[in-house]
Specification:
Helix content: 10-25%
Protein name: GH16 domain-containing protein
Structural class: mainly beta
Radius of gyration: 18 Å
Keywords: Signal
GO biological process, one term: carbohydrate metabolic process
Number of strands: 18
GO molecular function, one term: hydrolase activity, hydrolyzing O-glycosyl compounds
Largest sheet: 8 strands, antiparallel
Order of helices and strands: HEEEEEEEEEEEEEEEEHHEHE
InterPro entries: Beta-glucanase-like (IPR000757), ConA-like_dom_sf (IPR013320), Glycosyl_Hydrlase_16 (IPR050546)
Shape: globular
Number of helices: 4
């Protein structure tokens, strides 16, 4: 009965899927992914790297965050729906207690705002439709890392990290976070980073599509980062907050984009108590991504 109800809800969303990346006044579309492809196929390797296992080769264990799942390239965890949508599904093997999920990152590492210009990175995402005790441990995310991290994996957080959309334990809220400087402490207060959050406007974050955006503005002095959900500003950080040297390291370089759905880890634990999955935690609640787009002025 519940499975049928969820299928009905998803089918009702199909009319809102396939939204093309919109035109934004004052910006040019630099890059976009619409996830068009055959049902059950993987996202294009021309655009995406698929991360697998529990760490980068030579990188910190558990992806450096304490998350407990293993990432795979199985269509059970990562697939195109055939309707222009990417689906990432966390699964629990109840016999072994092992969680699996998926994480992808763009091949390109050069997304940045030019001097005197602006950049916007945004995606239309449906967070997993899970709440309360069933959601303990869920950690969906849409974020970026500075290009210098790729192949090094030991220079976080100085390379910069823009968390455009994070969510924890099925709470109706989106978090935007800047990570920078040194760990622990530093101008970004690591490991937490500089965070802001708010509830999604008009409908809950869970089970509904919303557009999550970061704007890097280098047209003003001091420069500034701004976070939006459905064009509602909910967080900002200026160059003056962290200092010019730290800002330049984090902002004045290319970034690559990541999408993933983790289980457990530091962010849920730091924000809302223990996020280790419990007996009531359910699996098979996907995150859906309609498009990802990058714009420059």
């Amino acid at each position: 009965m519940y499975t049928h109800q969820r299928l009905t809800i998803f089918l009702s969303l199909l009319s809102t899927i396939n939204a093309a990346p919109p035109t934004i006044s004052g910006f040019t579309l630099t890059w976009a992914e619409d996830f068009i492809g055959t049902a059950n196929s993987l996202p294009s390797t021309n655009n995406w790297l698929i991360d697998t296992g529990t760490s980068y080769p030579g990188g910190p264990a558990n992806w450096g965050t304490g998350e407990i799942q293993t990432y795979t390239s199985s269509p059970n965890n990562l697939r195109l729906t055939g309707d222009g949508v990417l689906q990432i599904t966390p699964l629990l093997n109840r016999a072994t207690g092992i969680w699996t999920s998926a994480r992808i990152e763009t091949q390109r590492t050069n997304f940045m705002a030019q001097e005197g210009g602006k950049m916007r990175i945004q995606a239309r995402i449906l967070m997993p439709d899970v709440k309360g005790a069933e959601a303990i441990g869920y950690w969906p995310a849409f974020w970026t890392l500075g290009s210098n991290y790729r192949g090094n994996y030991q220079n976080w957080p100085s390379v910069g990290e823009f968390d455009i959309m994070e969510n924890v334990n099925g709470i109706d809220s989106v978090w935007g976070v800047l990570h920078c400087g040194v760990n622990p402490g530093g101008p970004c207060g690591e490991t937490d980073g500089i965070a802001g959050n708010r509830a999604c406007p008009n409908s809950p974050c869970q089970g509904n599509f919303h557009v999550y955006t970061i704007e890097v503005d280098r047209t003003v002095t001091p420069e500034v980062l701004r976070w939006y959900v459905d064009d509602v500003l909910f967080h900002s950080v200026s160059e003056g907050t962290v200092g010019t040297q730290t800002w330049n390291q984090a902002v004045h370089q290319g970034h690559f984009i990541l999408l993933n759905l983790a289980i457990g880890g530091a962010f849920p634990n730091n924000r809302y108590g223990s996020a280790t999955p419990v007996a009531s935690t359910v699996d098979s609640r996907p995150m859906y991504v309609d498009y990802v787009a990058v714009y420059n002025s």
